[in-house]
Amino acid sequence: MTRIAQNFVLLLIGTAVLKTAADGTYLRYVKPALGPFLLASGTILVLLALVALGRDLRRTRADPGHDPEPGHDHPGRPHWLLLAPIAALLIVVPPALGAGSVQSGSTAQASVGKPGNTVDGKYDFPPLPAGPAPTVGMFDLIDRASYDSSGELDRRDVTVIGFIVRTAADGAPRTDGTRTGVDLARLVITCCVADAQTMRIHLAGTFPPPTDDTWVTVRGRIQPDSAVPNTQMTPTLVVTDLHTMPTPARVYG
After folding, report:
1. Whole-angstrom Cα distance, residue 158 to residue 217?
2. Element (H, E) at 215
């Protein structure tokens, strides 16, 4: 591959990085905090490629017979196949991880310690937000159901967002190994999708269960003492209201 071709590939890589950062596609691969770094790195790659391409083109025009890399021309090698994954990244947007990854993924654990007073292994938590059914992040909800000593979740409805994971028949089993009902799930990442872990809440009550991977907003009340070691601290939410919703831009917790 000639130097000009190499720089052209570098330009395409930088363009692909810029595109995924600018249109939000990067949220399917990494955490939002890495967006500015992707924009910066993509911009640097594009600028370097343009400078190098301009330099090589000027040299070629000044000396048409000049070979910048004598003895390194291997036209039989499929160097241009390097463009295939880059083109795929520019054209094809892969779906975010969903119910299919829940079965084999590891489970995110609730926190094992909180500041404040300890009562029978439980801790003080700040009050829930005001309102009849405040929206609570899934990790925070699991944390509270597992370790909150106030019992506030026993008295108040909450709203939580996630995607449906069927557990019956051939679906992904619950964290305790059983296969009954439906779970609400989210995936949490520390850095990128390679370290994704699953958060799950079991759904109880009477409601028409949507299909796997359907994003829903669920209102209900946590069943007391349902987040216990036997269920790997997975609480049960008794559903009073469930509505489907579009897939959010930020799919990972």
Report:
1. 10
2. strand 215-222
Q: What is the DSSP string of 121-156?
A: TEE--PPPPSSSS-B--HHHHHHHHHHBSS-GGGT-
82-100 pLDDT per residue, tens: 666 666 666 666 666 776 6
The residue type at 95: P
Task: Give the C-alpha separation, 204 to 1, whole Å.
Answer: 60
Q: Model pTM?
A: 0.69
Instruction: Give phi and psi for 9, each to the nearest 5.
Output: -60, -40
What is the residue whose two structure tokens read 């119910």?
Answer: 99
Q: In this structure, how many other beta carbons lie within 10 angstroms of the beta carbon of residue 250?
A: 12
SS3 219: strand
DSSP states of 5-37: HHHHHHHHHHHHHHHHHHSSGGGGTB-GGGHHH
Dig out the tokens for 39 from the structure: 């924009």
Model pLDDT for residues 129-145, shown as the tens digit of each residue: 888 999 999 989 999 99
Hey, CA dihedral for 23, 25, 26, 27, is it positive or negative? positive
Amino acid at 47: L
Length of the chain in terms of residues written = 253
Amino acid at residue number 244: T
